[in-house]
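Today's session is about reading a structure prediction critically. Students often jump straight to the picture, but the first step is always the sequence itself: look for stretches that repeat, for charged clusters, for runs of hydrophobic residues. Only then move on to the predicted structure, which in these notes is written as discrete structure tokens rather than atom positions. Here is the chain we will use throughout the hour.
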Amino acid sequence: MVRRVAAIAALALLTSTLWPRCAAAQTSSPDAGQNSPPDFEETVDIVDVVRHLLNKPPPVESSQPQQRTKMRAIAPVVGVKPSTGGMIGIAGNIAFYRGDPATTSISSTIVSATFTTKKQTHLNAHTTMFGAGDRWRFEGIYKVQWTSLETFDLGTNTESPPGDVARYDFDRFHQFLYGRIRPNLFAGGGLVFDTHHNIRPRDGEEGAWQQSPYYEYTAANGFPIDSQQSAGLSAELIWDSRDSFINPGHGSYTRVGYRALFDDFLGGDSRWNKVTIDARAYAPLVKGGGQKLAFWGYADLVVSGVAPYFDLPATGSDPYGRSGRGYAEGHFRGERLAFVEMEYRAPLTRNGLLGMVAFINTTTVANRQTGEELFDHFASGGGGGLRLLLNKRSKTNLAFDVGFGEKGNHGIYLGVQEAF
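Below is the predicted structure for this chain, in token form.
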């Protein structure tokens, strides 16, 4: 256990510290896009509030260049979700510039540790970094988890009896590097590695294990029951004109990716391929008023081969695990998934300290075994939430959301950064 955590942590630390330093010698480019830093002179964040309550003077302006100054935010994580039960933990965000903020997008690393009433431990890190002048873009996703998940039959129109729970250990190592081929447009790829091991039924439910959706799918497709791995390479194209990926005010983002997973590559159990399309857009409603609409469309499609059960497209399987608010992670799973969401965002106070959101979403999933196709059935959800500004320079919010789905599904979510 200690070796797993140490290995993933070392890789995440290496890529988030040494790699940017090696690339820091690059010079910025005047055509790198307009990514000017946010105007925070009249905005108040939680640090300002605490400083005011303690009657402390404003901080002394740093003598460091702005691109070298780190912006930090830390917050508790508290929530209630069907997949975790009660959840408590801590999350932190560090944002920074690796070049002139006028020509370089902001970079960010999010790290979290959570513990749940269902005896789960989740250690997660996600980093996105831009080189000077946006000449390169680096992304890394790292996870070490001792967790469990209720398993459901494939498709959107599915019901499973309670108690079909699989416990397992999960490690993820995804790393991508992109080069800019024109302003806002990047091309590149990377390595993906996911392993689910020590897979077993929940204590006391061994008798029903062979009738669970996970066991039936795994046995029918010839996968090992107690451990499954997927490893391969990806090729991706990204368009990103957002003013900030941490909390976008305007712009759009589209990622089209193709992943090839190989049998026996880094222990992979099968050969399969998938295409992922992630599209987002942000439209201000009132100039300078802070109100905006955010749109998110996500498609995850296995195009050939057979994927292991836990690697099939599913609710919450997007990079940040934010899709399908109102439903449990993995509630809907299948060979192909499509998801759309619209969110209204607005400030509640003139100084930007508090904000609110309201959202609606819907998910559709295909099941090759039953012949269910995409758009045959839909699972819709919605909800709302509050925002508390943690750091005005990076525009990092503490997000509190309540989501509701059909048939009594619901969840409470608290985390750092927007859902999308």
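Discussion point for the tutorial: The domain at 2-416 is CATH 2.40.160.50 (Porin).
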